[in-house]
Amino acid sequence: MAEVLVLVDHVDGKVRKTTSELLTIARRLGEPSAVFIGSGFDAAKETLAKFGAAKVYRVESPDVLGHLIAPQAELLAQLVGSASPAAVLIPSNAEGKEIAARLAIKTESGLITDAVDVKPREGGGVATTQSVFAGSYTVEATITKGTPIVTVKPNSAAPEEAPAAAADEVVDFAPSEAAKSARITESKEKQATGRPELTEAAIVVSGGRGTSGDFAPVEALADSLGAAVGASRAAVDAGWYPHTSQVGQTGKQVSPQLYVACGISGAIQHRAGMQTSKTIVAVNKDNEAPIFELVDFGVVGDLFKVLPQATEAIKAAKG
Ligand code: FAD
């Protein structure tokens, strides 16, 4: 069976859910081989095997540690040359898309970004599905040149453990000189919020322009629920919350069990990033706000009154 390379998304060996999703998809296409670049492989090993990585290409060289784009693209190009995989799957985040674009140029291959599904294609190759224009259209496509390279959006597949534990083959892979073209000389740790990662959280509480820049009640509610904090583009553009927290068409796609939209009108571009959430709750003072068209529960009211009350009630219920 042909190998399918999956670029592992991790922080010091803590594997992100997107990788389990990609390995699940890769098993439909061939035999998954994980490509682990960076440090902390021991922490990642078990998860990679559990989700079906039959082989792991490990690059723990200090020359390519960290999340540098150019060395990762070069390493993948080396692997595509030596392993001739059936496809390469890469997480569809800003870093992944840049790596994929460079890899496509280096290997003279076709690239599809932001796929929401990847299947084997009759007659060989892969068939992908993309959801475009905020979910208005579904595009089916296939790659006809080189090694298919596909970036896959988070939450495109439910991670499924492999029926049998995968073989534990680890291949240490030496980076070429070209892959050592850049290296990180210093990195400062980001202040940890203690909150879950936005795309992986079971609960997301998001704030919009209705917060007027005060995210304290949104954060307090999120913390009472153990949730991640998201933001609309209006809030991000105003500089009230970091761009990495933006939910929507040009932000992150989330699909949590519970999504709470606070002071967010429900523009189509925002919906594109959260409408697949299992339960949607909105707090908005305008009872005609479009967000109320897609909610399971809606609260018409001022978020500065509703959110603190909800937070207190949740804390009291938890004891
Ligand atoms: P508004 O639309 O201004 O809504 C604010 C809401 O808060 C209103 O409904 C108001 O009634 C309510 N409110 C006000 N005060 C209170 C209060 N005290 N209590 C309760 N409710 C209150 N947007 C995204 O979010 N994500 C994207 O990825 C994204 N990508 C885009 C891509 C393109 C190409 C374009 C053109 C736009 C994109 N947008 C995106 C922007 C989008 O069109 C909207 O402008 C944006 O989502 C609006 O953000 P908002 O709901 O916070 O603000």
Can you put this structure into words, describing what you see?
- This protein has two domains: 3-180, 3-Layer(aba) Sandwich (Rossmann fold); 203-318, TPP-binding domain (Rossmann fold).
- Helix content is 27%, strand content 25%.
- With 319 residues, the protein is α/β, with parallel strands linked by helices.
- The mean pLDDT is 92.
- The strands form three sheets. It has a nine-stranded mixed β-sheet, with helices on both faces. Strands 13-12-14-15-16 form a five-stranded parallel β-sheet. A two-stranded antiparallel ribbon has the order 2-3.
- Keywords: Electron transport, FAD, Flavoprotein, Transport.
- Residues 4-186 form the Electron transfer flavoprotein alpha/beta-subunit N-terminal domain.
- It comes from Intrasporangium calvum (strain ATCC 23552 / DSM 43043 / JCM 3097 / NBRC 12989 / NCIMB 10167 / NRRL B-3866 / 7 KIP).
